Structure formats: C-alpha cells, structure tokens
Amino acid sequence: MNRCKGLAWIVAALSTVLTITCARPAFSAEALSFPTTSFSIVTPATGVAIGRARYRLESTRDGAILRGENGYFDGQTDVEIAHIQLASGGQPKLTDFDHTYYNADRSILKRSHVDLKSGAATCTDNSNGQKSEQSEVLTIPDDTWAGASIVIPIRNFLRAGDKGISRPLHAFSCAPTAKIFSISVDIDPGPAIWTTYGAEAMRVQVTPDFGLLNFVIAAFVPKLHAWFDPNDELAFVGDEAARFYKGPPIMLVKEHGAELDGTPRAK
Q: Where are the alpha helices (H) located in the chain, listed in sequence order?
C-alpha cells in the first residue's frame, strides 16, 4: 500500500480512461471514463456549421495532456495543448498551456502560451497585417486554468453536487496581453433542455469577477457558457464563447454518437 500513497485519479473533462490500480484519495472512478469527443463548430446566431472539433485527454506518467483540434471549413485551424499534473493530494493542476490559431495557409494568426511553473507567458498577434509578440512574467494562483482545460475543475464542481451557486477560479488569457483573471463559475440550479444539443443539459456560466465593479461593467464583459449532460455522467457537451479575444463567437456542440472518423485534424 505504501507504493500507492500519493497516487490519485485525475478528473477528466475530455478524456480517455486513465487507469491507476492504487488508492484514489481525491476523486471517484466515474470521473475518469471519458471518450475522445467530437463536436460541430457552429455560428451561435444562425446555428450554421462552420467546422468540426475533437478533444481528447492522453495519460502521462505524472498526469495527462489535453489536446484540442478545431478545423474550419474555410481552412483555418486551431490547436490547443494543456499539460496537467497531479498536485499534492491528487488534485489536477494545469502546468503549461498553448493555443495556436492558424490561417488557411498554415501561417500563425495568433498564439497564447503560458508556463504556469515559471509564470512566463507570451501573446502573439499577427492579425490585420500586424506582427506583435508580447511577453510577461505573471504571478500564477494555484487554481489557474486556461482554454478548454477549465472544464476540468467545473466538472469537478458538478460532480460534487454544486447547483445554483458560484465558485471562484482564476484563468489565463491573452486579452490582448497576458493576464490572469479572477473568474466566477455560476452553476444553474438544475438541468434544462439545451435546444442546440437536443437534450437536457446543465448550464454553467463563466465570467470575470471584478468585485464591486461587476454591476457597472457586467454588460461589457464577455461570458463563456458551457453545458454538461446530467444523463451521461455529466459529459461536457458544448460551449459558447469567442474564438479568441474580440474574435468571432463560436459554439461547440457534441455530435451524438459521432466518433473521430472524418473530423478535420489540425497539424
């Protein structure tokens, strides 16, 4: 049993099964069974499909790597990679994040990167004919996440039975320079039919938390909505957000029964 001390199961938002045969001090086995998931990418206002995406979690010696690949029908692609380690007590923790956005000709449109161990962060923006790269060294709170990896702690909240309450977290973003935001995770009291998905889902809203200024600037703050299926072990089934800071709004919607075959793969 001593060999098992300190090992834990990682909560997986979009994952393959991570199999560890030792004790599990932090999370239940149900949180670990999650297949690679395919999504349609649609325009929220019209519901028209503009691409496809897939996300998967690959186990590593000390945690996992979350990989996301978005392929748009106009040839643009996004590649997102998040390294996750098991911290003390078996808690999952983001250690490195990179999200690169490519033009149709494979040139880099934008890139967001942060090493959460050192705090080194870089934001690249080559849009509108400009070429900008800005680097910062940030102070990183322990509960900092970025991109799709934020689904991991949110799903953990839901599995703990959280409903109708708010939870605090921190998130990294290039907005447009490297920043760490305090965010509020607001969970609906219960599930409702999400029409776009065609089934019942739990909705979660994520917004930056500006404390006493929230009331003043709420109308100007972008929001992330995410949905989880209460009838499928709280599977992550989609979200709505901007593709990047001040970018076009997009929505990911899980494809019912769809596997990876035919999904555009970003390279």
A: 151-159, 214-217
What is the number of structural domains in the chain? Answer: 1
Structural tokens at position 8: 């834990």
Task: Supply 261's token pair.
Answer: 């075959």
Does some domain include residue 114? yes
- Give the CA radius of gyration of the chain: 18
pLDDT, one tens digit per residue, over 1-49 is: 444 433 332 223 323 222 222 323 333 333 334 468 999 999 999 999 9
**Quick check: is 263 in a domain?**
no
Rounded distance between C-alpha atoms, residue 49 and residue 52, angstroms: 8
Give the E-state strand segments of the chain in sequence order.
37-42, 49-59, 63-72, 77-86, 92-102, 108-115, 120-125, 132-137, 144-145, 166-174, 178-187, 192-194, 199-208, 224-229, 235-242, 249-254
Q: Of 247, 217, 33, which Cα lies nearest the Cα of 125?
A: 247
Q: Which of 140, 223, 138 is nearest to 184 (CA)?
A: 223
- Per residue in 95-118, pLDDT (tens digit) is 999 999 999 999 999 999 999 999
In a domain, 143, yes or no: yes
Question: Rounded to an integer, what distance in angstroms lies between the CA atom of residue 57 and that of residue 28?
Answer: 17
Question: 96-105: long-range contacts (C-beta < 8 A, 24 or more apart)?
Answer: 97/146, 97/147, 97/149, 97/172, 99/146, 99/147, 99/244, 101/76, 101/77, 101/243, 101/244, 102/76, 102/77, 102/78, 102/266, 103/75, 103/76, 104/74, 104/75, 104/76, 105/75
260 domain residue, yes or no: no
Domain of residue 101, residue span: 2-254
